[in-house]
Amino acid sequence: xxxxxxxxxxxxxxAGQLAREFCNLLNKxxxxxxxxxxxxxxxxxxxxxxxxxxxxxxxxxxxxxxxxNVDAAESEFETALKVNxxxxxxxxxxxxxxxxKAIHFSTDYVFGGREQFIPFKEQDETAPLNKYGxxxxxxxxxxxxxxxxxxxFRVSWLYGEGRQNFIYKLLQWTETxxxxxxxxxxxxxxxxxxxxxxxxxxxxDSNGLFHLxxxxxxxxxxxxxxxxxxxKIDALVKPISAEYFKLPARRPNFSAMDxxxxxSLFNLGKKHWSEYLEEFLVKNKFE
Length: 287
Ligand SMILES: NC(=O)c1ccc[n+]([C@@H]2O[C@H](COP(=O)([O-])OP(=O)(O)OC[C@H]3O[C@@H](n4cnc5c(N)ncnc54)[C@H](OP(=O)(O)O)[C@@H]3O)[C@@H](O)[C@H]2O)c1
Hints:
Layout: E1 8-12, H1 17-28, E2 32-36, H2 46-56, E3 60-63, H3 77-98, E4 101-107, H4 131-146, E5 151-155, E6 158-159, H5 166-176, E7 179-183, E8 187-188, E9 191-192, H6 193-202, E10 208-211, E11 218-219, H7 220-230, E12 236-240, H8 260-265, H9 273-283
Parallel strand pairs: 1-2, 1-3, 3-4, 4-5, 5-10, 6-9, 7-12
Antiparallel strand pairs: 8-11
The chain binds NADP nicotinamide-adenine-dinucleotide phosphate.
């Protein structure tokens, strides 16, 4: 969208990694926004949400709030639903009532995996394997059902500044473990928060559901090796099947998505995931 400096934004889940990336870009564009985390704005509380929206009168609300603990969601399904479904429903309801546009994020974990490594398109059948995926699927469905004018982007394996991502955890493990075991049978697309936020801000005029990830895909194990090689960190990393970890939540073996629809509508560049990752590692002075 042109002229975002003339629009007003509310960012929910303001302390999260994607929210902070939106704040960086909105600052650079001199746009007006408020970013609120759960302590100031719990999206499951429609009265509070309504009050803030009525006072601030946003043109856009970008919902970065989410319950993202994939394993804990197995035993805390109600809590996951409260944020990922009820929160999403509340935002969509208010977007029609108060006439702002709302943007929401979903996940590759709405898919159940597949034998052939063909990245999933928007219209492919969903089949979440875990409660987190179910809560996110219900959230994206109600969001667009209430207002098809709104926007939903499915993203995967997000990384950005901060500690809530795989890269940060991996670097921690290199300091605390003699050998690091990483699943080589979970495949998706590492996606930078910069890539997501930049493209979303260009596409605010559109509506509907889009996959938004860079080109290519990789296993968790090769992703880890890529990061450690680029950072020249000498650590013993071994590939292993995800089953070994006996985690509460099942994950899809392959959940890479195809963003061709989004990039066919917008004349924006898209590169391989490894190029964004390399830029991120350099920019954040890991190297
Ligand atoms: N991270 C990934 O790999 C990934 C993959 C696929 C899709 N996504 C989706 O992408 C979006 C952005 O993810 P992210 O990685 O930026 O998430 P994040 O860093 O975990 O940030 C989410 C933020 O929302 C806050 N929050 C939780 N419940 C809330 C509530 N009821 N009201 C308001 N805020 C609440 C969290 O606070 P607390 O930390 O205190 O709970 C956190 O600050 C989410 O929709 C997520 O589901 C993420």
